[in-house]
Amino acid sequence: MNNDLNVLIQLGDVDYRLKEIEDLKGDLPQMVESQKSLIRELKSENDEKNIHLGEIEQGLTEKRHTLDDTKTKLDKYKKQLYLVTTNKEYDALLTEIDHSKEILSTTQSSLNELNSSKDVISEKLKENTIKLDETDISLKKCEEELQEALNESEEEFKSLENKRLGLEKKVDNRYLSLYNRMRGGRRGVGITTVHKNACGSCYNILPPQTVIEIRKGDKIITCHTCGIILFWENED
Q1: Cβ-based neighbour number of residue 35 at 10 Å
Q2: CA gap 33, 29 in Å, rounded
Q3: Which domain CATH number covers 80?
Q4: Of 93, 132, 140, 148, whose CB count within 10 A is highest?
Q5: What single DSSP character describes residue 198?
Q6: Is 3 part of any domain?
Q7: Residue 70 falls inside a structural domain
């Protein structure tokens, strides 16, 4: 058998096993990253809402002071009504009373709006905190499962990676480039067998002469349809 072809077949076996090991992880890496991203987003949102909540609290304090001051003035104006001696003074006090009542109404309305906003933000913070706790528990579970999967195959994975590096040095760069290019575009597979005179990757029937040449195994032959490297394996 052609030496380059022999090495590529071995490389294919190594890459197939590496892919199996990667598949053992399933979607755990994506789940871990997705949950970490969600936690970052929730924490960032909570930080913003806590800042907003602080601003609302400050506004509420100012509005309450305004209400207290205005009520104090209003009581004072009402008492002065019984002490005035002229119509002009009486009318002036009525104007001040009306103005104070208007301030009270506007301030109370603002106070109600701020309290409503505070309730909405507080409820959202509560929801986010619950979601954070749930996501954190789920993340830890996924990280443990992922680490367990990695521990089980870590030694074999490293061994295969080293074997792969050694095999790469034994094959012509032209064929290695072709193999890696096909591997990158066909779900991690760069070489495949012929099965019932068809390409094992795209399943297109191969010309009889091509099948004969592949069976000889004395040169690198690719599928005329998909371009993957082909080799012959006994179909017992």
Answers
A1: 20
A2: 6
A3: 1.10.287.1490
A4: 93
A5: E
A6: no
A7: yes
Can you read off the two tokens belonging to residue 212? 């004969």
- Count of structural domains, the chain: 2
Residues of the domain holding 196: 173-231
Give the three-class secondary structure for 195: strand
Closest alpha carbon to 111 in 170, 71, 159:
71
- Residue 175 predicted with pLDDT over 50: yes
Distance CA 80, CA 76 (A): 6
* Rounded to 5°, angle at Cα 107 from 104 and 110: 150
Residue 163 lies in a domain: no
The mean per-residue pLDDT over the stretch 91-120 comes to 96
Same domain for 124 and 196? no
Q: What is the mean pLDDT of residues 187-205?
A: 89
Segment 136-150 shows an average pLDDT of 89
Residue 132's identity, in one-letter code, is L
Q: Are residues 109 and 140 in the same domain?
A: yes
Together in a domain, 44 and 126 = yes
**Residue 213 zone, left/alpha/beta (φ > 0; ψ -120 to 50; rest):** alpha
Is there a domain that residue 45 lies in? yes
> What would the two tokens of residue 141 be?
């579970």
Residue 174 has pLDDT above 90, yes or no: yes
